[in-house]
Amino acid sequence: MSNLTEIAIVILNWNGKKLFPNFLPSVIENSKSKNIEIIVADNGSTDDSISYLEQNFPSIKIIDLKENFGFAEGYNQALKQVDAKYFVLLNSDVKVAKNWIEPCIKQFESDEKIAAVQPKILSYNNPESFEYAGAAGGFIDKYGYPFCRGRILNHLEKDENQYNQPTQIFWATGAAMFVRAEAFKTAGGLDGDFFAHMEEIDLCWRLKSRGLKIVYEPKSVVYHLGGGTLSYDSPQKVYLNFRNNLYMLFKNLPKKQFKRIFITRMILDGVAAVKFLAGLNFSGFGAVAKAHVSFYKNLSKLKQKRKEIQKHVIVKTHSEMCKKSIMWKFFIQKKEKFSDLHFNPE
User: Fold this and answer.
1) Residue 8 near residue 84 (C-beta atoms within 8 A)
2) Contact (Cβ atoms closer than 8 angstroms) between residue 214 and residue 116
3) DSSP state string for 236-248
4) Residue closest to 214 by CA, chosen among 306, 129, 148, 144
5) Domain spans of the chain?
6) Would the N or C end of the chain have less CB density within 10 A of its end CB?
């Protein structure tokens, strides 16, 4: 008989000791089963996180990574040490509701092509509203800009049960992602070069290109604090988002669309940089410039990654990728809700 755990809930921590009292108890209370293991992987914290966990949450397994690998590579390093059928990537600032696990596992059991499942993500501070990092499931537009059902750019909708049907999505948030361990490993895990931000979208794109599915499950509900590591307007976050979006597009865009889409996206980044400058946001302007410098510096490495990814592409077009520009819809046409987009990915 194998010692394989069915479900491993893995919380990546970096100096998150202050979050544990508010969030960990809900995970422990609502994840009670002999087939579930709760693990905290510590990314080189300097705030006594490990000793605090050992003293206050002795039932939790700790993986000490010794250094800060970032979100993406931190998870890769941790999950190499975890033997389970399903991984649950869960942020340290997430409170989970009752019965949050079973609906997601049922999705996996209903279709072997489902590689990842995302719960409904509501705001911890404002539980009537969706939360920025995932809301009711993620999509991207043709230029690679992410958006969600329940969240278009920075506009959040209230949860009025409008997204209470399970549906296929383009990406599941890394704040609370259920993923088949086998699919995660076969696709190469998260791209460690992303460090943090958008690595889950990149992973989901690779999974979908291999003919697998990503699903949103509304019966599973979690509450995300958000901005726990980097605030949403941090220059570092702006840098990572712009850089990683270029990385992701370069790696995953199909050959037919590649040149046209990528060049347009570079121009749009230039527009964003000018907008930062016009608003005297010099740190924002610098973050975009730095992102592009980093992209060019890593171009040869990205070419190798693209070559490898394209070998495994089975599906080149995805209905969950909006064929319109979300920026045009939001800023010019003032479409702030998902329903306003008239985008039906089914």
Assistant:
1) yes
2) yes
3) HHHHHHHHHHHHH
4) 148
5) 5-224, 235-313
6) N
Residues 225-254: b if buried by 16+ CB within 10 A, e if exposed? bbebbeeeeebbbbbbbbbbbbbbbbbbbe
DSSP single-letter state for residue 18: G
- Strand intervals (E) in 136-206: 138-141, 146-148, 151-152, 155-156, 167-169, 176-180
∠ CA 112-60-78, rounded to 5°: 55
Question: Global pTM?
Answer: 0.96
Q: What pLDDT is stored for residue 231 in this prediction? A: 59
Q: Beta strand pairing status for 321-322 and 114-123?
A: unpaired
Contact 3, 30 (CB under 8 A): no
Q: How many CB atoms lie within 10 A of CB 171?
A: 26
Which residues on adjacent β-strands are paired with residue 176? 90
Q: Which amino acid makes up residue 329?
A: K
The dihedral sign for the CA sequence 281, 286, 291, 293? positive
- Per-residue CA distances from 101 to 9, 86, 164 (Å): 10, 11, 16
Q: Which amino acid is at 315?
A: V
Give, in order, the Cα–Cα distances in Å from 79 to each of 2, 43, 206.
Answer: 18, 13, 18
Query: How far, in Å, are 20, 159, 161, 174 from residue 92 at the CA level?
Result: 7, 23, 26, 11
In whole angstroms, what is the distance from residue 204 CA to residue 193 CA? 16
The topology under which CATH files domain 5-224 is Spore Coat Polysaccharide Biosynthesis Protein SpsA; Chain A (3.90.550)
123: buried, middle or exposed (CB in 10 Å: 19+, 13-18, 0-12)?
Answer: buried
Q: What is the share, in percent, of the chain residues with pLDDT greater than 70?
A: 97
Model confidence pLDDT, tens digit, residues 105-144 = 999 999 999 999 999 999 999 999 999 999 999 999 999 9
pLDDT in tens, 65-85: 999 999 999 999 999 999 999
